[in-house]
């Protein structure tokens, strides 16, 4: 069950990807968790980076860094989607 990455509804929409991931997991969606953490590394323009980790049943399945939590969530959700469903 793959979602085309050129889906126009998905462009710059981390909530879309989190929702698609949860929907695809169906009854197992309650095993999906995410958390955010501040990262000591700085972005090239001096902004602090935020990390997002997505876990499924206690196992890390996706992670990403972003300047915003939404940016990090999008990357981590896509990585988790690929790990769990592709």
TrEMBL record:
Highest taxon of source: Eukaryota
Protein name as annotated: Uncharacterized protein
